[in-house]
Write a structure and sequence with these properties.
Blueprint: H1 2-27, H2 34-51, H3 60-75, H4 80-92, H5 96-104, H6 111-130, H7 134-147, H8 151-159
Length: 160
């Protein structure tokens, strides 16, 4: 009788462990899709706009938004909406070089997108001028003016 009880306990324990493993495997979620990440990026951005007075990448919600948008854009590099949203987030969070590079990689910018792109070029031109790199500043000004004329770009150009 004692052997039967021990055997039953052993079988029950093995069955319990098997059930727990099956349950754990079933609860592992699939990786989010590009659409999921894009939606998540938008949700985080809305929350960040409310939570923080200034948009900077180092703020938790802005970082989550940018990182989610980056994931979506990398999963579907041909999706223009994902690329444009990522570029907008880079610009909004003042990550100028990433904004500039992402805008440059895109074709046929809308009028609003050209303004955002031009802003990123102006910021980089200003920084280049501050460090004494006139050649880089000139290149940024030229590209920025190609996107959209602005007072900032004209002022920097006059200092070159």
């Amino acid at each position: 009788m004692k052997k039967i009880l021990m055997l039953t306990a052993l079988v029950m324990g093995a069955a319990s462990a098997q059930t727990q493993q099956s349950t754990a495997a079933a609860t592992v979620t699939a990786a989010p899709s590009a659409a999921d990440l894009y939606s998540q990026a938008q949700e985080y951005a809305v929350q960040a706009d409310v939570a923080y007075p200034q948009a900077f990448y180092d703020r938790t919600l802005w970082k989550a938004s940018v990182d989610s948008a980056y994931g979506a854009a990398r999963m579907e590099p041909g999706n223009r909406d994902y690329q444009a949203y990522l570029a907008q987030l880079y610009t909004k969070t003042q990550w100028w070089i990433n904004a500039y590079n992402t805008w440059r990689s895109m074709d046929s910018l809308s009028a609003t997108e050209r303004q955002w792109a031009s802003l990123s070029a102006a910021k980089l031109a200003y920084l280049a001028l501050q460090r004494g790199d006139r050649a880089a500043a000139s290149a940024y000004v030229s590209q920025g003016m190609a996107w959209a004329d602005s007072d900032s770009l004209r002022a920097i150009r006059s200092r070159l």
